[in-house]
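Notebook p. 47: complex prediction with iron/sulfur cluster.
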Amino acid sequence: MRVYKPDAKWHEMVSGGYIPQAGNAVEYDVSGWRTDRPVRDDECCIDCLFCWVYCPDNAIFCKDGSVVGQSIDLVHCKGCGICAAVCPKDCIEMVPESELSGDDNE
Ligand code: SF4
Ligand code: SF4
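Predicted complex, C-alpha cells below:
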C-alpha cells in the first residue's frame, strides 16, 4: 500500500479507479449489501420528500411531488438508513432483512 504525506498533491497520487461510462451505477444491484431495509408507513407520510432529496442512491420513487408505489427501489437501496434519519415524521423504519420474508426481498 502506498502512503502519502498529508501535503501530497492530487496529481502526485495514483488513480484509485475509473468510471468509464457515466450513469452506469443504475446497472448495479446493491440489494445484497443491505442488512436493514427501509419500510415506509404510507399513512403518516406528508410528502415532504426529504427522503428523496437525501437518499444517496436515488432509491426513493417519486412522481408529481409525492412518494409513490412501493416507494423504495430495493435493487438500488443499500440500507444506509439516511431516509429514516431525515424523515421528520418518523415514517420510515429500518427493519432487519432477517425479519422479512424471502418474497419481500424481491
Ligand atoms: S436506506 Fe439509504 S439507500 Fe435505501 S432508500 Fe434509504 S437513504 Fe436510500
Ligand atoms: S421524509 Fe418521511 S414524511 Fe417526508 S416524504 Fe419521506 S417518508 Fe414521507
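Notes: Strands lie at 36-40, 60-63, 66-72, 92-96. The helical segments are 50-54, 82-86.
Next step: compare against the earlier run before touching the bench.
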